[in-house]
Amino acid sequence: METPVANSQVVAWVGLDWADQRHEVRLQAVGSSQIESCTVEQKPEALHAWVAQLQARFPQGRIALTLEQSRGAVIYALMNYECLWLYPVPPKGLARYRQAFFTSGAKSDVSDADLLLEMVRSHRDRLRAWQPDDALTRQLRLLVEHRRETVADRTRLTNRLGALLKTYFPQALEWAGELRSVAACEFLSTWPSLQAWQAAGRSTQRKFYRRHRRLPAEELEKLLDAIAHAQPLTHDRALVEASVLMTQTLVEQLRTVIAALARLDQTLEKLFDQHPDQQLFRGLPGAGDALAPRLAAGFGTDRQRYQKAEEIQQFSGIAPVTEASGKHRWVHWRRACPKFLRQTFHEFADASRKKSLWARAYYEQRRRQGASHHSAIRALAYKWIRILYRCWQSHTPYDESVYLAALRRRHSALWLAVGSLSIQEAQT
Questions:
Q1: Could you give the CA distance from residue 400 to residue 412 in angstroms, rounded to a whole number?
Q2: What is the mean pLDDT of residues 257-286?
Q3: What is the pLDDT of residues 30-66, one digit of tens each?
Q4: Fewer CB in 10 Å around end: N or C, the chain?
Q5: What radius of gyration, in Å, describes the C-alpha atoms of the chain?
Q6: Selection from 268, 418, 288 nearest residue 350 by Cα
Q7: Check whether domain 137-272 has CATH 1.10.287, yes or no
Q8: How many Å from the N-terminal Cα to the C-terminal Cα in the chain?
Q9: Architecture field, domain 7-132
């Protein structure tokens, strides 16, 4: 297999063996006979700090690093570093390579790190490199992850704000509207207490609601009457005055987060419009403006990265892990995986139930079989990945009617469930 970088550009070889507590590392600089050893803690901060040290030590050229493919979390953490060429090795491939030198088949983190270093140093031309995505996709991936974290910040702030209002001004939860909205921020920053809102007067209150809620005239007048006759939850001055200040500081933070999300959404929309696969993912049922770019970033643009759908199912953590020992056998979800990618598939599968008839039928079928909500969603995500993988490989946008026709031709049990659900919805 042709390697993406000429040997003259490789300045160091690295073998990295993942473990639950720490990673064993073997490094050999090109032109040196010395093999260096170190360990890196199983923490994102420690891993990134170690890569920063490599970048400072080898500012020119690339570092060829090999690791077991099943440990997807490490690949996901390192894949955005341009200084690294990653060579994932399937666990079975490493096991067979180990058996060639250790007849007992004994495995240890130290020996595996040595073997991984030897594999990338001596057989790099036979390994398939993890090709980094184009700059647009990498930028998209970083921004969608940051957007999800920013949404979590907004949720955290609105939860704190809601809990605070319940202690002294619970009416605001109804009168201000959605706490994550600009209107609610305006309301609470200007009138952070019942006394302040009542003192604003009926005319000011009417102008606010006409600007933001557009209630029918009769309903608006009833609301204004309720505001005028409302009683405070507490008369504790210390509590109210402290809560007013805390509310205003939370609203200031929330306004900043809301503005940041608007800016991110605007940038992501422009970037996604330029993405070569935007039509492929934008038309998915339930994907919407938020999940479509996340799915595109999750799959990437390198069609050779995954040879079959099972690889991305396992890498993302959607595929379950089956363990067996003696007569015992148990199935659990994967922990060593890129959590954001798993979350993306999980959220998309959940959203698809509202837009896709077969997805809703499949989910309800799993629930009737005794699966919990999240277990049924993961099973649906597993199924969706197989469909999306074929669409992604063939550059063919998903078509619900085509998939339903395929289910009908195969006389699938899912097709019967779709028919039953259609009848139920028609009757209701």
A1: 15
A2: 96
A3: 999 999 999 998 888 888 999 999 999 999 889 999 9
A4: C
A5: 28
A6: 288
A7: yes
A8: 59
A9: 2-Layer Sandwich (3.30)
